[in-house]
Amino acid sequence: MAQTINTSMANETDGLPLPRRIWAVIAIAFALCMSVLDVNIVNIILPSLSRDFGTSPAVTTWILNGYQLAIVVSLLAFSSLGDIIGYRKVFLTGIAFFCLTSLICALSDSFWTLTTARVFQGFSASAITSVNTAQLRTIYPKSQIGRGMGINAMVVAISIAAGPSVASGILSIATWHWLFAINIPLGIIALVLGIKYLPHKEEKSERKFDFMSAIANAVTFGLLIYTLDGFAHHDQSDYLIVQLAILAIAATYYVRRQLRQTSPMLPLDLLKIPIFRLSILTSICSFIAQMLAMVSLPFFLQNTLGHSAVMTGLMLTPWPIATLVAAPTAGYLVERIHPGILGSIGMVLFGTGLFLLSTLTVHSSNCSLILLLALCGAGFGIFQTPNNSTIISSAPNNRSGGASGMLGMARLLGQTFGTTLVALLFSFVTSGRSTSTCLIVGSGFAVVAAIVSSLRLSEPSTLKSKKQ
């Protein structure tokens, strides 16, 4: 019996044995599905919540903004904590608190109760997503990590595509409270499977958690997002100047503190690895391009083409469905083809799709729109899987949490910059050309991502070298 346990623990150094690996992946998939669904579902019910609570639309958005801001300010802190105490503990604790905060959200009877619960739910989601990809490194053999990333991307695509449908189905038979209650059974399944099947053996860091860095991180990134939002909504210039001054001071202190540490919370040392640095940069550019499209396209579909909100959601569905198909395929291909090549191909397809979308007019057919959206989704899926795999695999084993946090932060920063650019472009470009301008700019960012991705060809693939 003791020999069996020792053998099992030893196997964890290069992935879990089947079928335990499958159950561990299912646990991660349920937790990931839960957190992604929660964002898409809440987007849909914001107008209803505004009416129920008697709050303005601008104030009501804090039910969503508070959730996202909590993730931004705590993501790297939870990643660092995962390196120290173990990804398993952080992940399972995040799931448990997500279930608890979802219950509080479901029972909320006031705006401030719901908003406060959503903030803590955001911290719980941050704990889940901060170490989600890091755990794949201990679940899969080193040579197959791309497959895990592909499945992750597929789960996210399915959750995005299913969000509007799940919300509509629940709201047709119940109140909005049940949109939060649905998280509880999903979370319990993820928690039970995670406790039983997630790896126990992890390579941990011996450093202590840096609370001052955690505070500086929260102030820096929280104020960065808040200031960008202020620019997007044309806040008073004197307030923006004060915010920028405080941001500069906080960021300077934070960066200097990180540079003095061996294993910093903001893993600037990992950026010294060329392929890691290039992969982070391409990730930021890709998500800027994605948000420029996803935020601006509904305006074209509704205001120009005259589609309803429900029809708009259906018309955009080909994008995540194409990603769903392309991402797992890219996960297998990355074991044979350099990620720089796959990333460049994916971004070229993505950029081409965005540019062609910008040429559509009111006379264009729905078939053309659907095909181009599918092209964008396929290109994005082909890029994301090898890029994410490279980010995780190029970092040392005991820094997987930091790499996972940087991956998540690249996504959040890219999405935030993209959303801000949409707001700025919409304010400076006439309404008839605003969406097409956003798509053209997005195409430009995709081209930049393709070029940067091609620069990785001079670096050996960490995925292929570890397989040999």
Number of domains: 3
CATH class of the largest domain: Mainly Alpha
First and last CA, distance: 33 Å
Helicity, as a percent range: over 70%
- In the CATH scheme, what's the topology name of the largest domain? Growth Hormone, Chain: A
Task: Give the low-confidence spans.
Answer: 1-12
Sheet with most strands: none
Key structural traits:
single chain; about 475 residues; mainly alpha; Growth Hormone, Chain: A; 3 domains; about 80% helix; globular
Task: Outline the structure in words.
This protein is an all-alpha fold and 468 residues long. The protein folds into 3 domains: 17-208, MFS general substrate transporter like domains (Growth Hormone, Chain: A, Up-down Bundle); 211-260; 267-468, Growth Hormone, Chain: A, CATH 1.20.1250. The chain contains 19 helices and no strands. It is globular, with a radius of gyration of 22 Å.
Give a short synopsis of this structure:
The chain has 468 residues and is mainly alpha-helical.
Topology summary:
Layout: H1 2-11, H2 20-53, H3 57-60, H4 62-85, H5 87-107, H6 111-139, H7 145-171, H8 177-181, H9 183-197, H10 211-232, H11 237-259, H12 274-304, H13 309-316, H14 318-333, H15 339-358, H16 366-393, H17 400-428, H18 434-455, H19 462-467
